Amino acid sequence: MGFTGIKYTKDALGRNRYVRIDLKKYKESQWLEDFLDGIEAMALKEEETVSLNDFNKYIDTRLQSNVVKIDHRNSVYK
Description:
By secondary structure, the protein is α+β, with helices and mostly antiparallel strands. Helices cover 41% and strands 14% of the residues. A hairpin with a 5-residue loop joins strand 1 (6-10) and strand 2 (16-21). It is elongated.
């Protein structure tokens, strides 16, 4: 079974090793997006995870440190 725009490349031992996909032809394909998402998930499988609670605490801390406090009592826009 073969698809146009998809080619297999063999390694030095003659085994199928690489897949070349014509992105012009398949760039809007849901199956390609799902396939690439799966590959990315596999690559990140061993990465350290962070709980949602810890992530939210981190974001809250970052946002609070970027807030500029304005003293409206001494504002030039009175």
